[in-house]
Amino acid sequence: MVDVAKGGEVQLEPEYDRVSEIKAFDETKGGVKGLVDAGISEVPRLFHQPPDTLGETHVPSASLYGYTIPVIDLEGVKEDRSARKSIVEQVRIASKEWGFFQIINHGIPVSVLEEMKLSIRSFFEQDVELKKPFYTRDFTKKVVHNSNFHLHTAPAANWRDSIFCNMAPDPPSAEELPEPIRDMMVQYTECIMSLGHLLFELISEALGLNPDHLLKIDCAKGLGQLCHYAPACPQPELTLVTTKHADNSFLTVLLQDHVGGLQVLHENQWIDVPPVPGALVVNIGDLLQLISNDSLVSVEHRVLANSVGPRVSVGSFFVTGFHPNPRVYGPIKELLSDENPPKYMETTVIEYLTHFKNKGLDGKSALTHFRI
Length: 372
Hints:
Cofactor: Fe cation
Oligomer: single chain
Family: Belongs to the iron/ascorbate-dependent oxidoreductase family.
Structural class: alpha+beta
InterPro entries: DIOX_N, IPNS-like_FE2OG_OXY, IPNS-like_sf, Oxoglu/Fe-dep_dioxygenase_dom
Helix content: 25-40%
Shape: globular
GO molecular function: dioxygenase activity; metal ion binding
Keywords: Iron, Metal-binding, Oxidoreductase
Largest sheet: 8 strands, mixed
Strand order of the largest sheet: 3-4-12-9-14-7-6-5
Number of domains: 1
């Protein structure tokens, strides 16, 4: 209890009971969308980010400082040998210096991208009673809808709701998928799996390996689709849609809408990743940094809240998730030498993901735990 002087008397102000507030919020199963629908005008305290988190350096207009996220045109990558060579080199530089790049002419029709975003929005904007059957914190399920996977462990909750669909290697049946996203989730997954195979080939070549090297060690075996919905926020300066983190995947392909808010930490500056019509954002995940022995970098990024909203995004995470997979991953032996010894211990995907989940989005790299 806190003593508060008022009118010459000492009154007791109740302490903030964060645990109870989180429990009450989670039990509604309505998520952030439920709060907005209830007409709140202030962001609940459980979403308030620590001031030092929000006060980190930000470059409002990256181009003014000479910083621009690389945009790579994949036109001709399968037919033109010289074009492919140039693309591989662009991928190598972007993956080593930025850990992030955008791709255009990637082969997925714009109509599919637009329909996918609409289907996700439809799921989150339907009646809450229709969403509740999918609301769970059992992450072994193939379809998981909730608000903040790390709600009970993170320093602050994020201003977003999510639905995660584990689409490979053992996808849910059509009946297990929510009706608003059912058809598009299957179609979009097929497109992303095909694109993912191409990206892993390009990255393998960028590392000086055979094109199929990363595919042979199951980097593209698993795919989880993580779809976020962030409603307009009444006090966007107090919270974030996604706290600073690096991805727990081999590779992530992101479909973002026109709202924006994604930022990458580059040379200690927050750089905007502007939405480019028809483009997809690609970023290196922690597991790819680990097996490349730091040849490629998994970079921290975050998403700002906004008062415009809603913001919709679909992150396609190439990782086998919590499926039993005995394969052990460590720095690729072909990349090692006396001058470049292994920097990480070997681990399994499950061991890595368990550490990541228990740690939560606390702004610190999960890779540190596995460094030699």
